[in-house]
């Protein structure tokens, strides 16, 4: 077996450099692919996202569930090909902030491999890949350029199980500077697997990302590989995204205002002072240390990264529970509010019960095939189905089962505040029912994390909405100069300060065309431009398969873009707010009322309508100082 492996490795090594060159060339030649030109020419990236969905739908049989949600007809999906499906190697990506316990989890998985052949790719942003060394130290079956000597080394007394194969990606982040290398590494492992006997082939590939990696970018890498018909993607599938959370620091980091860079937070990047001093001298590190390369924008913070890692995951491991004094439920509450789709497991030292809780968990139906629009739709759906305590509410989407006493106003999901009930019809005498005072008291008394969706079909006045954005607990991303002040009560100001995460579609009056995406996480705010509203494009330019999904966002399915139209199509405010106490109707109402006051009033709307076909007029009438970034 060892001889086999050695031969495999040698051949794979020969392929390695050739393949890398070919792949680099392929990537370079794709820089000007038509879809990218489309974006440059003002088309919509939302359109791109949905085009991708169509492309994926035709290539991935497992997309049926998501595809139907997006309006794809079943005819557009090829029937499942079981034989080829069986030979596809599922990939699990482990993300999680620096030091959260990814390597520890991986070690646990290798030690308890249940007979599965697990190959691993380990990414470390530092020039020395410590994690791979840790894993490599357990293995005689190591594949690496400079460690072939280990292959025949019988003298190692290893107390751990070995990864079936290992490739290291170091000195950069696999989601950005080493993105090309990631697929190359997968391909190398595949070559290695192909050269093995049937019973030695890899069953799974696990990628341990660096602590500063953004899972959304990793997902994009694989989705683009599918879009470009890379043959590799017929053999592997990005299946499950796992995020490891360090429970003991999560609260502090998510509320922290610090940036994720080596200057402001050196302790996040270096294990000790020596390492920091050593790395500092190396010129090449300046490349990955650039915050703009590590995060999607130069203004990114630790909280953005943590929120993204939490949101884009099928499984979230609440690790290091041994360091918490029974506060696991609070962390779970916040994590569940940020990602209602994920399965949440509590672990200590990454000790999961079964590998099936992580490996191939999503069976091709997880967040790996989603895009930013799907992410948003899932959140809106989750917020819409929140348990509702309003006795007059007739929204059929809401859960009105008071008997569960789970999430409704005044009840903490953690159960810590189970005696504080402000449900007006509750007759449980064990509950405190000082309803009036509860909502008007400090919001800090509401430990429960709540979420709700703000919706409107009129544009925001840019100056007024800026003054509201400035009330969020943010320190970066919005202009700090004084905006038009709007009146706000103390309760409302407090309510905005409680918002931990807000995101969704936004429409500002400086444009009748631009579809904006509002994204606030912890202390950072960003407004991104998704592209055009679908309404602005003739229907024959819409992807046919996505028509139903697009129309579902219209205020009127028969909307026309005429100057006399009273409907607005898919232009809308659809923003999800998440934060402690936001299950409270009072909190929600005060936020809603304030946002309503930022919408154009009657006269402003008339002015907007008179100029709506002239973008430059709108931009000068309704000056917008909120910087927007093109979402690519
Ligand atoms: N107390 C405690 N310590 C843990 C737990 N899991 C991991 N650790 C420790 O936390 C430290 C970091 O763990 P790693 O597994 O290296 O974390 P990582 O996410 O791979 O770190 P990076 O590669 O730097 O991002 C190590 O000292 C682990 O022993 C846990 O559940 N409880």
Strand tally, please? 13
> What compounds sit in this structure?
guanosine-5'-triphosphate
Calculate the mean pLDDT score and round it: 69
CATH architecture of the domain at 2-28 and 88-357: 3-Layer(aba) Sandwich
Helix content: 25-40%
The outline comes out as globular
Q: How many helices does DSSP assign?
A: 24
Give the N-terminus to C-terminus distance in angstroms: 46 Å
Enumerate the spans where pLDDT stays under 50 for 5 or more consecutive residues.
1-80, 138-160, 281-299, 400-447
Quick one: biggest sheet? Answer: 7 strands, parallel
Order of strands, widest sheet: 3-2-4-1-5-6-7
CATH topology of the domain at 2-28 and 88-357: Rossmann fold
**CA-atom Rg in angstroms:** 26 Å
Family: Belongs to the SIMIBI class G3E GTPase family. ZNG1 subfamily.
Protein name: CobW C-terminal domain-containing protein
InterPro entries: CobW-likC_sf, CobW-like_C, CobW/HypB/UreG_nucleotide-bd, P-loop_NTPase, Zn_Chap_cDPG_Synth
Domain CobW C-terminal: 449-595
Give a quick rundown of the structure.
The chain is α/β, with parallel strands linked by helices.
């Amino acid at each position: 077996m060892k001889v086999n492996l050695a031969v495999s490795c040698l051949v794979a090594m020969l392929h390695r450099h050739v393949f890398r060159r070919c792949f680099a060339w392929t990537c370079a030649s794709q820089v000007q692919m038509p879809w990218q030109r489309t974006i440059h020419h003002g088309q919509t990236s939302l359109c791109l996202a949905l085009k991708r969905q169509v492309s994926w739908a035709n290539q991935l049989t497992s997309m049926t569930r998501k595809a139907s949600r997006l309006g794809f007809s079943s005819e557009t999906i090829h029937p499942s090909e079981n034989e080829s499906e069986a030979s596809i190697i599922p990939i699990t990506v482990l993300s999680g902030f620096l030091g959260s316990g990814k390597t520890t989890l991986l070690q646990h998985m290798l030690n308890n491999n249940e007979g599965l052949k697990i190959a691993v790719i380990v990414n470390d942003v530092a020039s020395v890949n410590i994690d791979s060394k840790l894993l490599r130290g357990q293995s005689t079956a190591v594949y690496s350029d400079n460690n072939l000597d280990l292959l025949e080394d019988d003298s190692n007394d290893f107390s751990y199980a070995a990864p079936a194969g290992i490739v290291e990606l170091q000195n950069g982040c696999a989601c950005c500077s080493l993105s090309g290398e990631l697929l190359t590494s997968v391909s190398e492992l595949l070559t290695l697997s192909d050269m093995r006997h049937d019973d030695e082939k890899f069953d799974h590939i696990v990628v341990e990302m660096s602590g500063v990696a953004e899972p959304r970018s990793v997902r994009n890498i694989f989705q683009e590989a599918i879009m470009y018909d890379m043959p590799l993607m017929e053999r592997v599938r990005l299946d499950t995204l796992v995020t490891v959370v360090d429970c003991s620091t999560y609260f502090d980091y998510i509320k922290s205002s610090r940036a994720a860079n080596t200057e402001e937070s050196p302790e996040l990047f270096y294990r000790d002072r020596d390492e920091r001093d050593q790395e500092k001298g190396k010129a090449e590190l300046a490349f990955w240390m650039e915050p703009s390369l590590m995060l999607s924008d130069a203004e990114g913070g630790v909280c953005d990264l943590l929120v993204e890692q939490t949101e884009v995951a099928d499984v979230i491991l609440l690790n290091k529970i041994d360091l918490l004094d029974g506060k696991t439920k609070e962390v779970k509450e916040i994590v569940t509010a940020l990602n209602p789709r994920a399965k949440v497991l509590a672990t200590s030292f990454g000790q999961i019960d079964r590998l099936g809780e992580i490996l191939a968990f999503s069976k091709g139906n997880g967040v790996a095939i989603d895009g930013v629009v799907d992410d948003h739709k899932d959140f809106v759906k989750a917020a819409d189905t929140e348990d509702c305590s309003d006795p007059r509410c007739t929204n059929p989407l809401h859960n009105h089962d008071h008997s569960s006493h789970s999430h409704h106003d005044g009840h903490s999901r953690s159960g810590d505040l189970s005696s504080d009930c402000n449900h007006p019809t509750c007759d449980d005498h064990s509950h405190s029912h000082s309803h009036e005072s509860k909502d008007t008291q400090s919001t800090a008394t509401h430990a429960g994390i709540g979420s709700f969706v703000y919706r409107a079909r009129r544009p925001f006045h840019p100056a007024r909405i800026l003054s509201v954005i400035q009330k969020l607990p943010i320190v970066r991303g919005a202009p700090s100069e004084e905006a038009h002040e709007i009146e706000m009560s103390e309760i409302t100001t407090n309510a905005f300060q409680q918002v931990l995460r807000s995101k969704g579609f936004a429409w500002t009056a400086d444009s009748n065309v631009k579809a904006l995406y509002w994204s606030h996480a912890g202390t950072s705010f960003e407004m991104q431009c998704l592209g055009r509203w679908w309404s602005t494009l003739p229907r024959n330019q819409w992807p046919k398969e996505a028509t139903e999904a697009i129309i579902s966002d219209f205020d009127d399915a028969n909307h026309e873009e005429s100057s006399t139209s009273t409907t607005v199509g898919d232009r809308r405010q659809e923003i999800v707010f998440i934060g402690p106490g936001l299950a409270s109707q009072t909190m929600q109402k005060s936020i809603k009322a304030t946002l309503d006051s930022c919408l154009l009033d009657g006269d402003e709307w008339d002015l907007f309508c008179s100029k709506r076909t002239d973008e430059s007029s709108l931009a000068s009438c309704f000056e917008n100082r909120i910087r927007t970034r093109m979402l690519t």
